[in-house]
Amino acid sequence: MHDSLLSGPLRRIVRTWWPLAASWMLMAAEMPMLSAVVARLADPAINLAAYGGVVFPLALIVESPILMLLSASTALSRDWASYRKVWRFMMTAGALLTGLHGLIAFTPLYFVLVRGVLGVPEAIVAPARLGLMIMLPWTWAIAYRRYHQGVLIRFGHAQAVGIGTATRLTANAIVLALGYFIGTLPGIVVAATAVATGVMVEAFYVGRAVQPVLRQQLRPAAAIMPPLTWRAFAAFYIPLALTSLISLLAQPIGSAGLSRMPQPIESLAVWPVVTGLLFLIRSLGFAYNEVVVALLDERGMTPYLRRFTGVLAIATTAILLLIAATPLATFWFGRLSALPADLLALARVGLLLTLPIPALTVVQSWCQGAIVHSRRTRGITEAVVVYLAVNVALLWAGVAWGRTVGLYVGLMAFTLSLAAQTGWLWLRSRATMVAVAARDRAVA
What we know:
Blueprint: H1 2-7, H2 9-28, H3 30-38, H4 44-63, H5 69-76, H6 80-106, H7 109-118, H8 125-134, H9 138-154, H10 158-182, H11 187-209, H12 211-218, H13 230-259, H14 264-286, H15 288-295, H16 302-324, H17 328-336, H18 341-352, H19 357-374, H20 378-401, H21 406-443
């Protein structure tokens, strides 16, 4: 029985999931690598805080409208006309958002946002601006590669996504190694250059890898009926874009909160190290979203997808618990990430506050994939509004209390708001799950 299951639907799920999981894990390795190198250069706390507290959150906010192009492309790239329509959106949005990034990085608007809105410590204002300038190519490169990654997944070439991410990580590692051996460059310059170089290299690879798929599989594909219209695309994509924007607003809001609580520089410095490790483990769950989107179309897959959801949630939680509750945490934060003793102690305690997050991530991907499958994506936006409301309320309470280290408040707020978001997604995905079960019963 076990062998037959693995040779059938479960094997298909694993075969679709593992290249995406490998891709996400390689991408997630970027932050720990970056933190490890910057922590070994001059002024590690300042440069880690500048990148993790300002540059990365602002870059994510700018790119948020195109972040869901991976899910959109996986769901919609079924024929040539649909591909070309969404391609025009991708290129236009990439250009406009790159212009916005430049406006923030190269004009006085930067100081309005960073000093006035975020209120970050003055010591990190100047280095963060330099990093944001270097990151200018980030948004357009990500729009291009995420869109074409969706095409590769849709037509059964998920392994190319993993290879692309490996090229990104390789380019990233080369730049980080050069920065480390040169030794005189500011950590923020090394970090931002590595990240920008990596995404451009990956975009180039994905652009080359997708060409045979476009010629041999997408172009000859039968036209969908009814054809994708701009109105239908907007109804599908706008809630997803709003989801990314609202979700990522939590990044600078979190930075603003940490900056106003005890030990602000220490908290901002440790934040990217802890969340980088979390992202590495959560990547196994992130990869599952596109698997659900791609395979829920197939009749009879629902019970196997549900079973895989449970196994993956338990496995990812066990991995984080193993690290947090053993000397592996000291090894990761102290030896690999090179945090000094005081920051290492903050990181170890903070990690324990995040134990539910890996399982929540897997369940979110299961529910969110089902909602994307239904094409009624408003529930995803509603869920992220719940996430942001809970997050802001808890951060506000932490600032008002003013007696707890900002890192601890921020991580607890992250965990509880993710739990609230997951609960809402579960409620909003129920109708789709019932409809899919009825479809499968009708065929059986």
